[in-house]
C-alpha cells in the first residue's frame, strides 16, 4: 500500500506543474493594451467673421489650422486636448455709401463734395493659438465622433479694405453736367473714379467656440495584437462656431478716413468690422476637412514568446 501511495504522489506532482504552466502561459500571453495616442493634425476649409450689421454682408473666405495633442481612451470613449494654430480669412461687403462734405476750391468758392463708395469689400485675416478640449466616442471599427470646445487667443490680425470712389462737386450757382449743378469727370480737379485701399491692424479678444467633429479612423484593427505600432490616419469633418467679445473701446464710430498726405481731401472707407455694431460680440465660423495622424493608438505589447 505504501508503495502504491508513492506512485500516486509522484504522478500527481507533474500533473500539477503541467496544469500550472498551461494556466500561466496563456495569461502571460495576453496583450497589454495602451490606448493613449499622440496626435498631429491639419485642416483646411471655410472661415467667416460676421458683425451682424445690416449694412454689411459676411461672405467668408478660406481658413486653415494645424495642431498637436494627446488622446486618452477609456475603452471606446476618449478625451482629446492639445494646442492648435489657426489662420482664418473672411471677406465682407458693404452696401453703396454716399459721403457729402462742405468744401472750398482754390478760388475760395464753397461747394459740396460728393463721394460715392461702391464695390466696397473688407478682407480680414487673423492668426490664433487655441486649446481644444474634446470628448468623443470611437467604435472598434473606427467610426469617430467628438464634441467640445476651444479657447483661442488672437495673436495677430489685419484688415485690407478696398472701394471704388467716384468724386463729384456740387455748385449751387452752376448749371453742371446735367443741369443739376454737379461737375464730374475732371481728373485734374480730383473729380474722377478710382480704386482706393486702406490697410489696418486688427486685434480681437479671446475667441470662445463650440466644436464638433465626425469621421473615420483608417488602419484600426481591434484584433491585431502585433507589437508593431503603425500610425493610424483619421479623416473627419470639423466645425467650430463661437464668438469674440467686443468692448466699447473696440468700436469704430467713423467709417471714413482721409488717406491724403497733403491738404487735399481724399476720403475712403477703412476696415468696418467693428463699425456700427449692434451687439457686443463678433461671430466666428470655421468648417473644414481635417486629417489627423495618431501615433500609439491601440498599441499592443504582447508577452508571447516567438516560435
The H/E string reads HEEEEEEEEEEEEEEEE
Number of strands: 16
Q: Briefly note the structural class of the backbone.
A: mainly beta
* Spatial gap, N to C terminus: 45 Å
- Strand fraction band? over 45%
Stretches where pLDDT is under 50 for at least 5 consecutive residues are 7-34, 297-301
The main pleated sheet reads as: 8 strands, antiparallel, barrel
Helix tally equals: 1
Structure notes:
By secondary structure, the protein is mainly beta. It folds into two domains: 1-30; 31-301. 9% of the residues lie in helices and 58% in strands. The chain contains one helix and 16 strands. It has one helix spanning 2-29; strands at 32-34, 37-50, 56-58, 61-74, 77-94, 97-104, 110-138, 143-170, 182-183, 193-201, 207-218, 232-245, 256-258, 267-269, 281-295, 299-301. The strands form three sheets. It has an eight-stranded antiparallel beta barrel. It has a two-stranded antiparallel sheet with strand order 1-16. Strand 4 and strand 5 form a beta hairpin. The longest helix has 28 residues, at 2-29. The chain starts with a helix and ends in a 6-residue tail after the last strand. Residues 7-34 and 297-301 have low confidence and may be disordered.
Topology:
Layout: H1 2-29, E1 32-34, E2 37-50, E3 56-58, E4 61-74, E5 77-94, E6 97-104, E7 110-138, E8 143-170, E9 182-183, E10 193-201, E11 207-218, E12 232-245, E13 256-258, E14 267-269, E15 281-295, E16 299-301
Antiparallel strand pairs: 1-16, 2-4, 2-15, 3-5, 4-5, 5-7, 6-7, 7-8, 8-9, 8-10, 8-11, 11-12, 12-15, 13-14
